[in-house]
DNA sequence: GGATAAAAATGACTTTGGTCACAATGTTTC
DNA sequence: GAAACATTGTGACCAAAGTCATTTTTATCC
């Protein structure tokens, strides 16, 4: 049983690359292609496909809007979003609209293929990096997700202070709970703010929450 | 490269069945087995594994608690939860604790295997039925909370100030962007803090972020 | 029309936060 | 052993945040 795929991607070179990767798996067949969301929608009117692979950034109509419309017209059609690491902001909205998966363009080909199989057999697939960024947003509580960036630039002590700031603690409370003087806590915070290029504890707290440190 | 698996499941018959399925894929090797969470943890101390397949319902220590502990001890170890359709209540908590996937025991063997591959290559996999039940729950949480609780108690003006605080803006910046005096902004914030039972702008910012106001 | 409440403002005041300079100690690294 | 860095601390200082009392205007509700 072959899987009929609609590939939506504006850059012809990337599109061809993806097509080659997909058709390494003999089950997959790219039977339609489109360069933007509007084109994709009109293609779907005339052709039956099993799966849509959709780029996020495109002219005319982007992947977010296109996914929304496709899903409202064909709720059972599988849609997988192709994205770059920077585009994860959109992930939230698109999942809401019913996308079945989120894959990074930079993935290994095998990873891409196995994820597609997983979606076809009825799953929702999020790639690790995206899931890591998304889950805190959805779950709003500490998962594991210690950011690489943060840990590179901050020391153990600083990290534990950041967490407490992210819980809304005052310097006095932090000092008490870590058995430090208030002055020391202040010094640490000054250093942290400089390191992370933030202005005050409020921005630091926001940073901590958004990065799932709390 | 073989994948070393720890299989945690209390019923011997089911465990053997799963083992047979898993080892149909020559990459997979069940090298350790455990009948409950406590056993699983002690096995992990002595043996290195790449993946844990964990049943939810078990005597002594259930899969939820076990996953939590395993993930805090070995954050990079992949954990997939095996569940029945009725157990989806737990899914939420366990995802929070960092589980990498959720599979139904009733799945087709191939589905199971492809999902495991997907998790190993860095994904988060939710099976359709579970995702369908879970997503609304997750999406509702962060979005709806805002309208119900907060908007009941805060005025328009106050709400717009809360958002700016949630972006890390200072009183001066808020005053400028809303064309108010600094004193007015301070007054508003005092009222907001009282209304929401918070202490300072940092706690307010955290509140705003966690409730998806930013 | 009077009551109620949001919105805006001012001034005086206290507390907290953040910066800076400087210092002491211990650990790790080369 | 010197250099680099993490950690802790002090004291002085200024800026920002937050509280409180009080006032004015405007709009809405009964």
What does this structure look like?
2 copies of one chain form a homodimer. In chain A, strand 3 (51-55), helix 3 (63-73) and strand 4 (78-83) form a beta-alpha-beta unit. Chain A is elongated and about 70 Å long. The first copy, chain A, is built from 11 helices and 6 strands. With 214 residues, chain A is of the alpha/beta class. Mean pLDDT of chain A is 80; it is low at 140-149. Chain A has helices at 12-22, 37-46, 63-73, 91-96, 109-120, 128-139, 148-153, 156-166, 171-178, 182-196, 201-210, and strands spanning 3-8, 28-34, 51-55, 78-83, 101-104, 123-127. Chain A folds into 2 domains: 3-139, Response regulator (Rossmann fold, 3-Layer(aba) Sandwich); 148-210, Orthogonal Bundle (Arc Repressor Mutant, subunit A), CATH 1.10.10. In chain A, helix 8 crosses helix 10 (182-196) and helix 8 (156-166) crosses helix 11. In chain A, strands 2-1-3-4-5-6 form a 6-stranded parallel beta sheet, with helices on both faces. The interface between A and B is large, with 44 and 45 residues. Strand 6 of chain A pairs antiparallel with strand 6 (123-127) of chain B. Chain B binds a DNA duplex (30 and 30 nucleotides) through residues 155-158, 170-172, 180-184, 186-190, 193, 200-201.
């Amino acid at each position: 049983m072959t899987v009929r795929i609609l590939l939506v991607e504006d850059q012809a070179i990337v599109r061809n690359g993806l097509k080659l990767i997909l058709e390494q798996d003999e089950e997959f067949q790219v039977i339609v292609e489109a360069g933007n969301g509007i084109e994709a929608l009109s293609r779907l009117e005339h052709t039956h496909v099993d799966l849509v692979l959709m780029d996020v950034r495109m002219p005319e109509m982007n992947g977010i809007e296109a996914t929304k419309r496709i899903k409202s017209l064909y709720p059972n059609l599988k849609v997988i979003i192709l994205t770059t690491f920077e585009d994860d902001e959109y992930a939230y909205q698109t999942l809401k609209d019913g996308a079945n998966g989120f894959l990074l363009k930079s993935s290994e080909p095998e990873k891409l293929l196995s994820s597609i199989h997983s979606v076809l057999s009825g799953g929702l697939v999020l790639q690790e990096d995206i899931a890591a960024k998304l889950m805190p947003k959805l779950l709003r509580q500490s998962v594991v997700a210690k950011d690489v960036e943060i840990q590179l630039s901050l020391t153990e002590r600083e990290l534990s202070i950041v967490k407490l700031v992210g819980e809304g603690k005052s310097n006095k409370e932090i000092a008490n709970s870590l058995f430090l003087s208030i002055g020391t806590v202040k010094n640490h915070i000054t250093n942290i703010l400089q390191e992370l290029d933030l202005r005050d504890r409020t921005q630091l707290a926001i940073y901590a929450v958004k990065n799932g440190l709390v």
